[in-house]
C-alpha cells in the first residue's frame, strides 16, 4: 500500500533518494557499463526521433535558456547486477542515441581527443542477445560507410537502425560551424558544467516484472516525476543561503507528500479512497482502475476464507498532477504535454524566481480545492453547491483549468469572501445549465446514454445540495452531514439500469443470485418472473400467451413432471416475444424507467424483476444512490396515495403511474438547471 517511497517516486519498484538529487549528468555516466537484456527489442529510433532529441539539446545550448543551468532528459530505469553492470530496463533508445552523439562528435572533432576527459569510450553498451551489436557500435565511425556494413544492414535490423541514426546525427552537425560543434561537445561532457542531466531510476524488484509493468502501463514514468525533479532540484530554490535553500526545498517536498496523501484519502470509513482526486479528475476505468482482494473478517476479527474484491485507482497514478492541470491551460497540455508546458515557462525567465512563482500558484490551487472538499464549521449551501457543481462539471468533461480560472476571475472581482463564492456559484450554475436539455422526457436509451447518465447524477446531487423535500421519505440519511462521494461513483463504474427490466435473462440472473440449479428451481423462478411480466403493460395477446404458459407450468409443478419438447419450444418462443416487446417499447427506455447502479450491483441484479431488485436493495442498501432506493420504496408517489396504496400495490412491477410520478420528481428537481428561453449563457 501507500508509503513515502511510492508517493514521492510514483511506484515502489523504483529506488530514489530524498528527491533533490535524483538526476545524473551525462558526465556522471562516464565509465558505466550498460547491458541491454535479451527480452528487449533492439534499437529502433527513427530519424525524426533522433532529430527531435538533437534539436532540444542544441537549442538549449545555443538558444534561449535565460540562465537555466541544465536540460533534463527523460528517464532511464536500470538494475545493477552482481558484476556492477547496469541492466537497462527502460530508456535503451535514448541511451543508445546519446552514445551515438558522443561517438560522432569525438570522431568529428579529433583534436579534442587529446583532452583527458574525452579519451577512450565515454560509457559502454553491450547486448545480452546480440553480441555483434556492441562491437559494431564501438566502431561506428569506420563501419557506417563500409561495403561490409552496406551488406550487413540488409540482414541485420540493429545495424540498419544504428547506421540510420548515425547518418542523421552526422547530417545534423555538418550544418553547424566547427566552433559550435566543439563548444557543444565540451558542454555536453564537461564535468564542471553538467548542463545535461537524465532522470535516473534504479529498480528494487525483479527486473522482468518491472519491465513488464512499465510496458503494460502499470508503472508509467509520468511527467509528474520530471516536474517534481524540477521543483525539488537544488537549483530551483529562490534562496541564496545554502541552509535556507535546503529548508525551502524540504518544505516543498513535505507539502508535495502531504498533498499526495490527502488527495488519496478515504472519506470517513468509506471503502473507496481518492475522495478528492475522483472529485477533480475524470477516471478511465480500463486504464486507471485495478481490483484488490480483501479478506473478510467475522465479528471477533478472525479472517474468513471468503474474499471481497473492490476497485481502487492504480497506485502509480500521481494524484498531485490534477492541481498542476488546474493552473496550466488544457489546450497547451494537449499540444505539448504537462511537463513541457512548465519547463518552457522555466526557460522563459529567471529560473528560480519562475519556479517559486509557479509553486505558489499550484499551492493556492491545492488550498482552494482542499478547502471546498470537506464540510467545515461554517458550512453553508454555497459551499455545498461549489463542491457538487464542480464534481458534476468535471464528470461532464469540463477541464479543471477552466473551472479554476472561473474562480480566480471571481476572486479578483469581489469585495469579500461571501460575494466571491456567490459569484462563483452563479458562474458554475451557468455551466451546469449548458449540460441540461429541456426535453428530458424525450431522451431514449441507448442513443442518449451519456446525457441520461449525467441527468440522473445531477438528480442525485440535487438531494445532496438541497436535501429531501418529501416528509414521508423513509430515507433519512442526513444530507446536511455529508457530501456526495464521486470516488464511489467513478470507481464503482456506475451505469444506467432499467427499473423494470422485462428481459428473460432475469430468470438465469435469479437462479445464479439465489444459488438455484435444479430444473424444479428454474420452473419456480420462471413462474414468478412470468407473473411479474403479466402484470405489466403488455398487449392483451401477449398476456393471454403468458397466462396459458403459466397454466402449463403450474400443471407441470403439480404433477411433478418436466415439460415435454414441444412445451419447452413454446416457452422459448414466448420468452423471445417478451424480450422483443421490451426492446421495441420506447417508453421503457426513457428516463422514467432508468436509474443508476454500480457495475457490481448491475451484474448481480440487472435483469431481475422489480420485486427481486427491491429485495437486493433492502438487503444491501449502501450499494445504491439514495434516489435509487427511493424509487423502490415508492417514495415518489404523493404521500396520501402512498399511505393508502402501499399495502395494495404489487412490488413485482413498476407501473405507468410509478414512472409518471418518478418523471415528475426528476423534472421538478432539475427545473432550476434548465436554461430559460430568454436566458443568456
Q: What secondary-structure arrangement, pairings included, does this model have?
A:
Layout: H1 4-8, E1 14-15, E2 23-25, E3 33-36, H2 47-62, E4 71-80, E5 86-90, H3 92-108, E6 124-127, H4 131-138, H5 140-143, H6 147-152, H7 157-174, H8 178-189, E7 196-203, H9 207-215, H10 223-232, H11 242-264, H12 275-280, H13 285-288, E8 289-297, E9 303-313, H14 321-325, H15 330-336, H16 338-348, H17 351-371, H18 381-395, H19 400-412, H20 417-433, H21 449-466, H22 486-491, E10 495-498, H23 505-513, H24 519-534, H25 540-558, H26 565-583, E11 594-597, H27 599-605, H28 610-619, H29 626-632, H30 639-645, H31 656-670
Parallel strand pairs: 3-5, 3-6, 4-7
Antiparallel strand pairs: 1-7, 2-7, 4-5, 8-9, 10-11
Helix pairs in contact: 2-7, 3-7, 10-16, 15-16, 16-17, 18-20, 18-21, 19-20, 23-24, 24-25, 25-26
Coiled coil: 536-569
Keywords: Coiled coil
Domain GmrSD restriction endonucleases C-terminal: 573-665
Approximately how much beta-strand content do the residues carry? 5-15%
Number of domains: 5
Largest sheet features: 7 strands, mixed
Q: Describe the global form.
A: globular
Q: CA-to-CA gap between the ends?
A: 46 Å
Amino acid at each position: 500500500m501507500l508509503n513515502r517511497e511510492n508517493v514521492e517516486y510514483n511506484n515502489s519498484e523504483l529506488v530514489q533518494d530524498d528527491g533533490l538529487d535524483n538526476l545524473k549528468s551525462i558526465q556522471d555516466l562516464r565509465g558505466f557499463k550498460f547491458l541491454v537484456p535479451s527480452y528487449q527489442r533492439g534499437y529502433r529510433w527513427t530519424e525524426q526521433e533522433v532529430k527531435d532529441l538533437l534539436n532540444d539539446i542544441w537549442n538549449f545550448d545555443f538558444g534561449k535558456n535565460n540562465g537555466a543551468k541544465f536540460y533534463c532528459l527523460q528517464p532511464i530505469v536500470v538494475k545493477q547486477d552482481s558484476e556492477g553492470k547496469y541492466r537497462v530496463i527502460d530508456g535503451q533508445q535514448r541511451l543508445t542515441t546519446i552514445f551515438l552523439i558522443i561517438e560522432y562528435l569525438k570522431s568529428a572533432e579529433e583534436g579534442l581527443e587529446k583532452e583527458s576527459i574525452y579519451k577512450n569510450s565515454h560509457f559502454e553498451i553491450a547486448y545480452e542477445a546480440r553480441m555483434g551489436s556492441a562491437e559494431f557500435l564501438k566502431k561506428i565511425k569506420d563501419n557506417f560507410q563500409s561495403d561490409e556494413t552496406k551488406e550487413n544492414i540488409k540482414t541485420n535490423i540493429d545495424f540498419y537502425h544504428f547506421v540510420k541514426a548515425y547518418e542523421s546525427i552526422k547530417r545534423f552537425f555538418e550544418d553547424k560551424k566547427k566552433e559550435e560543434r566543439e563548444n557543444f561537445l565540451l558542454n555536453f561532457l564537461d564535468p564542471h558544467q553538467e548542463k545535461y542531466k537524465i532522470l535516473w531510476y534504479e529498480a528494487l524488484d525483479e527486473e522482468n516484472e518491472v519491465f513488464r509493468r512499465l510496458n503494460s502501463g502499470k508503472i508509467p514514468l509520468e511527467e509528474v516525476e520530471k516536474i517534481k525533479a524540477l521543483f525539488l532540484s537544488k537549483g530551483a530554490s529562490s534562496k541564496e543561503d545554502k541552509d535556507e535553500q535546503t529548508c525551502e526545498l524540504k518544505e516543498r517536498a513535505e507539502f508535495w507528500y502531504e498533498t499526495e496523501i490527502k488527495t488519496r484519502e478515504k472519506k470517513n470509513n468509506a471503502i473507496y479512497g481518492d475522495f478528492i482526486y475522483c472529485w477533480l479528475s475524470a477516471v478511465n476505468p480500463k486504464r486507471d482502475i485495478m481490483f484488490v482482494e480483501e479478506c473478510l473478517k467475522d465479528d471477533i476479527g478472525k479472517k474468513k476464507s471468503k474474499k471481497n474484491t473492490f476497485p481502487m485507482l492504480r497506485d502509480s497514478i500521481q494524484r498531485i498532477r490534477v492541481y498542476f492541470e488546474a493552473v496550466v491551460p488544457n489546450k497547451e497540455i494537449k499540444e505539448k504535454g504537462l511537463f513541457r508546458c512548465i519547463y518552457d515557462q522555466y526557460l522563459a525567465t529567471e529560473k528560480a524566481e519562475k519556479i517559486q512563482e509557479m509553486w505558489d500558484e499550484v499551492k493556492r490551487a491545492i488550498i482552494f480545492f482542499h478547502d471546498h472538499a470537506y464540510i467545515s464549521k461554517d458550512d453553508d449551501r454555497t459551499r455545498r453547491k461549489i463542491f457538487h457543481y464542480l464534481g458534476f462539471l468535471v464528470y461532464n468533461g469540463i477541464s479543471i483549468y477552466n473551472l479554476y480560472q472561473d474562480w480566480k476571475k471571481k476572486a479578483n472581482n469581489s469585495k469579500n469572501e461571501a460575494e466571491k463564492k456567490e459569484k462563483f456559484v452563479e458562474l458554475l450554475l451557468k455551466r451546469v445549465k449548458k449540460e441540461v436539455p429541456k426535453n428530458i422526457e424525450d431522451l431514449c436509451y441507448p442513443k442518449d446514454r451519456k446525457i441520461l447518465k449525467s441527468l440522473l447524477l445531477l438528480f442525485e446531487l440535487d438531494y445532496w445540495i438541497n436535501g429531501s423535500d418529501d416528509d414521508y421519505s423513509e430515507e433519512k440519511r442526513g444530507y446536511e452531514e455529508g457530501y456526495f462521494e464521486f470516488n464511489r461513483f467513478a470507481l464503482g463504474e456506475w451505469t444506467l439500469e432499467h427499473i423494470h427490466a422485462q428481459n428473460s435473462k432475469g430468470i438465469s440472473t435469479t437462479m445464479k443470485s439465489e444459488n438455484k440449479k435444479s430444473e424444479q428451481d428454474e420452473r419456480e423462478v420462471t413462474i414468478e418472473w412470468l407473473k411479474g411480466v403479466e402484470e405489466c403493460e403488455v398487449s392483451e395477446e401477449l398476456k393471454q400467451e403468458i397466462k396459458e404458459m403459466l397454466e402449463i407450468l403450474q400443471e407441470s409443478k403439480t404433477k411433478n413432471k418436466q415439460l415435454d419438447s414441444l412445451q419447452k419450444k413454446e416457452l422459448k418462443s414466448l420468452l423471445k416475444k417478451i424480450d422483443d416487446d421490451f426492446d421495441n417499447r420506447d417508453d421503457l427506455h426513457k428516463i422514467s424507467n432508468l436509474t443508476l447502479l454500480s457495475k457490481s450491483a448491475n451484474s448481480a441484479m440487472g435483469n431481475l424483476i422489480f420485486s427481486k431488485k427491491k429485495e437486493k436493495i433492502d438487503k444491501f442498501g449502501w450499494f445504491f444512490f439514495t434516489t435509487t432506493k427511493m424509487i423502490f420504496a415508492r417514495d415518489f408517489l404523493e404521500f396520501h396515495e402512498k399511505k393508502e396504496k402501499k399495502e395494495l400495490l404489487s412490488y413485482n412491477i413498476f407501473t405507468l403511474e410509478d414512472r409518471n410520478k418518478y418523471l415528475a420528481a426528476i423534472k421538478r428537481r432539475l427545473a432550476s438547471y434548465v436554461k430559460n428561453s430568454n436566458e443568456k449563457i
